[in-house]
Specification:
- By secondary structure, chain A is of the alpha+beta class.
- Chain A has 7 helices and 13 strands.
- In chain A, a hairpin with a 2-residue loop joins strand 10 and strand 11.
- In chain A, helix 4 runs parallel beside helix 6.
- The longest helix of chain A has 15 residues.
- Chain A is extended, with a radius of gyration of 27 Å.
- The relative contact order of chain A is 0.10.
- With about 270 residues, chain B is an alpha+beta fold.
- Chain B has 6 helices and 12 strands.
- In chain B, the strands form 2 sheets. In chain B, strands 7-1-2-9-12-11-10-8 form an 8-stranded mixed β-sheet. A two-stranded antiparallel ribbon of chain B has the order 5-6.
- In chain B, helix 4 runs parallel beside helix 6.
- The longest helix of chain B is centred in the last third of the chain and has 18 residues.
- Chain B is extended, with a radius of gyration of 27 Å.
- Classes of the chains: A alpha+beta (about 290), B alpha+beta (about 270).
- At the A-B interface, strand 1, strand 2, strand 3, strand 4 and strand 5 of A face strand 1, strand 2, strand 3, strand 4 and strand 5 of B.
- Strand 4 of chain A pairs antiparallel with strand 4 of chain B.
Chain lengths: ~290, ~270
């Protein structure tokens, strides 16, 4: 294949060592199913127009300007040059200013991953950084101007290369401690814990992304077909939360059925388990108790 | 700050079910946001839909989703219709598989959410599922429909709650071999290893949220503040670039490493 195109080229520096590198998109988002917006009355498609909120007249792109809401309906206008002035000049350098033990990294800060590979004559310094971090079980924190923002990048060894993950800013992340703070402290029954742990043990498997299939589009096509034909929609079984008084029994029943099935390791995404689940028959995931 | 749950449904382990809710771990609500204005009038600019044939504005309630059957042939779908998509994963996170956490590389993590029980009745079942994963040092793998796609999700116990990650699809992560080809044979000079060890040790810090502050946002807020005060005042000067020296091509890595450690020693002695 052709050499992949770099999103960014520059240097990594650690201490006084400089290593020329290129940064490549490691993950892209695939599109979800999109609908067209229609006018219900005419069935025609609609298009978007930008209009003045007072006069209702269309506003050309060149007449659109950014404004910051300053309270009581007033705005501070910012021209593109002024916004650009807020962004430091890029020196094209990912300067490593700290190393963090891998087990201290809070992954909820992760934004997007990029592959980092050395450019010509940077191979040796690159290998040194990679192997040094691998051995010490650390990742590096660096910052640079990326995509018009000064971004913090977490750099870690990955296979033979490095991955740089942009991190979300402090004000963009709600901490897990805060999110879970309101939850009551529950004293967990020992027998229940043992049973649940046993059930988990029987469901050990692996995750293979390449085998995962998004079934949404298929299910949507079915729904559309039913709508056209005027047939009722297929029903999904109603779900009910287990009553606290039934919890132990439900765990015992689960552990019992799981024991019988513990034979072969399952895959979260294999087609066979999927078919079983939709047919609602046979064993495995579908041998559930009737609710209600 | 109280957040509205992004999703409500059920968490299920075998025959045990509890009701749960989910909120995103990240949000851009505190980001400096701009509105689009009409330069000539100073009024807000609104986006509005117009009928592509008649050119007339379309009211919100007249907008409807169209599923394209063929060119120019659409089936109208109401939001309520979409709630009937016949996948159990629209309402239930049924944990079918468990795996050790380190089997799922960070590169698969897409977006984090916090999962918590939704009512008192569900507190205990939730706690048992969470604690059992923790005890087994496992994460759960399941499916969940979010934003009109069925996603693979990973559930990781954390504190009293569970962090739910959407996982990237197989074709969303590019093959690292295309980027790292030939790097396996690159080995650092043996003599350099003790020096990099020393450097890493000296510069190892604890994680700290100030590492992810956003100076550009602060600069923007400063610019806005000064503009509010002095209408028409000139824009502030260009922000200075980060303080580091321009990289010059270092020829000898060993020399550079020795210099780094020496420089670091001086710095720490000064403190």
């Amino acid at each position: 294949m052709n050499a992949p195109r770099a999103n960014w080229k520059g240097h990594i520096t650690f201490g006084e060592v400089t290593c020329p590198v290129a940064l490549y998109t490691a993950a892209s988002s695939s599109e979800r199913i999109s609908f067209n917006i229609l006018n219900r009355n005419t069935g025609n498609r609609v298009r978007r127009e930008f209009v003045d909120s007072e006069t209702g007249k269309a506003v050309e792109h060149d007449d659109q300007v950014k404004g910051y809401e300053a309270g009581n309906g007033r705005y501070v206008v910012l021209e593109p040059e002024e916004i650009a002035a807020a962004i430091p000049d890029s020196d094209k350098t990912l300067a490593i200013n700290a190393f963090i033990p891998c087990d201290e990294i809070d992954d909820v800060y992760f934004d997007k991953p990029y592959y980092l590979a050395p450019q010509q004559s940077g191979e040796e310094a690159f290998a040194l950084l990679r192997d040094g971090m691998k051995e010490a079980k650390v990742a590096a924190i660096a910052s640079t101007v990326l995509f018009r923002r000064l971004r913090t990048v977490l750099i870690r060894p990955h296979g033979d290369g490095l991955i740089g993950t942009t991190l979300n800013f402090d004000y963009e992340v709600r901490s897990a401690e805060e999110a879970f703070d309101d939850m009551p402290n529950i004293k967990i029954d020992k027998e229940m814990l043992e049973l649940a742990a046993h059930i988990i043990g029987t469901k050990k498997g692996s995750y293979d992304a390449s085998k995962f299939d998004d079934r949404y589009e298929e299910a949507l096509a079915e729904l559309v077909k039913a709508k056209i034909e005027g047939k009722p929609f297929k029903k999904v079984k109603a779900v009910k939360a287990s009553k606290p008084s039934d919890l132990l029994q439900a765990l015992k029943d689960s552990a019992g059925t799981s024991k019988k099935l513990a034979g072969k390791p399952k895959s979260a995404n294999s087609n066979s388990s999927r078919k079983k689940a939709t047919k609602q028959s046979g064993s495995g995931s579908s041998s559930r108790r009737k609710t209600g | 700050m109280a957040l509205r749950p992004y999703w409500k449904g059920y968490l299920k382990l075998s025959l045990v079910t509890c009701s749960v809710e989910m909120t995103p771990a990240t949000s851009d609500s505190d980001k400096v946001k701009f509105h689009t204005l009409n330069r000539d009038t100073g009024n807000r600019v609104l986006s509005q839909y117009v009928d592509s044939v008649t050119g007339k504005p379309v009211r919100d309630k007249d907008e409807v989703k169209g599923y394209q059957r063929s060119e120019d042939d659409y089936v109208m779908l109401e939001d309520e219709d979409l709630e009937h998509v016949a996948l159990e994963s629209t309402k239930t996170i049924d944990i079918s598989t468990f795996a050790p956490r380190d089997e799922i590389d960070w590169i698969w993590l897409d977006k984090p959410y916090y999962l918590t029980p939704n009512d008192k009745v569900s507190d205990e079942a939730f706690a048992v599922i969470r604690a059992a994963m923790d005890k087994q040092k496992m994460v759960g793998i399941s499916r969940l429909v979010l934003g009109r796609r069925e996603r693979a999700v990973m559930l990781e116990p954390r504190g009293k709650g569970i962090v739910l990650w959407t996982l990237r699809y197989g074709d969303e992560v590019r093959d690292e071999a295309d980027y790292f080809d030939g790097l396996a044979k690159e080995k650092p000079e043996k003599a350099a290893l003790p020096l990099i060890r020393k450097l890493i040790k000296k510069q190892t810090r604890h994680w700290d949220a100030t590492m992810v502050s956003d100076p550009v946002q602060e600069n923007l807020l400063d610019i806005i503040k000064s503009k509010k005060k002095h209408r028409g005042a000139p824009a502030p000067k260009k922000a200075p670039p980060p303080a580091d020296d321009k990289p010059n091509n270092v020829i000898n890595i060993m020399d550079a490493l020795r210099k780094s450690i020496a420089a670091d020693n001086r710095r720490s002695k000064k403190k």
